Amino acid sequence: MRFRAKIVDVGCLNHFTRVANTITKLAKTCTLRFTVDKVFFILNDKVANGGVSMWCALNQGKFFDEFHMEGASAEDNEIYLELTSENFSRALKTAQNAKAVKIKLTNKQCPCLTVAVELPSLSSSSRIVTHDIPVGIIPRKLWNDFKEPSVPDFDVSIYLPVMKTMKSVVERMKNISNSIVIEANQKGEMNLKIETVLVSVTTHFKELGNPPLVSEHDSQKSTQERQPESSMAEARIDIKRLLQLLAGQQVNPAKALCNILNKRIVHFILLHEDFSLQYFIPALA
Question: Does the keyword NADP apply (predicted)?
């Protein structure tokens, strides 16, 4: 099992660092999965048990100048590692002015992801700062626990408002309640609501737009079976989980979507040119 990669381009390095910082805001520990053409950051806290789930996929060719990996065998040519997100993010932060960054799977008393940062120097030779990040090797028999989360047929799919605006609204609401209700319909309308014994506050967003419903389940529905476009689907979720997502974003998405399965789950999709992030927050009972 081998892995080594190198980033030389400053723009790619800064972009990769911002992605790693975003992941750190969402997950203390995560699974790092390498395939021949992609890198994945995965958090699987079992939505069914009340935990959030995250799936972030990067096209490695858009980030790395060199990328070589060999799995345990030709049939299972992948690598799954468990690591502390902050350790990885902290190592990359030292690379802001680096000439190059090398990332390699090593064994130094324990398996490590070694990040070697080549920094410019006044002398002819460069300075190398090395970070050894302990990782756990996830065996093949457990790989199925880290498959891409299955996406149910949602009741509503809607584009999100500007995320900075949404973050500002949710931050204010956080001081009043621990939970927030997100509701939306197929007419491009979304409401953020908090309700307590003493106060009820609602923020309305209109004309957000809805992506086309393209699931097989939806295409088989007759017009009579479908809910009216103005019908609201809603879910009450932990407000801190939502704020984690909104406050942790360090790369502006090209598109941001929200899917709601009524009273069960909210699914966020942030689409970028070279990577995508999915985040599942289960509804509170």
Answer: no
**Side chain identity at 169, as an amino acid letter?**
V
Strands (E), the chain: 2-7, 29-34, 38-44, 53-59, 66-70, 79-84, 100-108, 110-119, 127-134, 136-137, 156-159, 179-184, 190-195, 200-205, 233-238, 255-261, 265-271, 275-282
Residues in the chain, how many? 285
Taking only the tens place, the pLDDT of each residue in 260-269 is 999 999 999 9
Is the CB of residue 38 less than 8 Å from the CB of residue 57? yes
pLDDT digits (tens, 9 = 90+) for 122-174: 776 778 999 999 999 999 999 998 888 877 789 999 999 999 999 999 999 99
The reported pLDDT for the residue numbered 227 is 64
The overall pTM is greater than 0.85: yes
> Tokens standing for 283?
């509804």
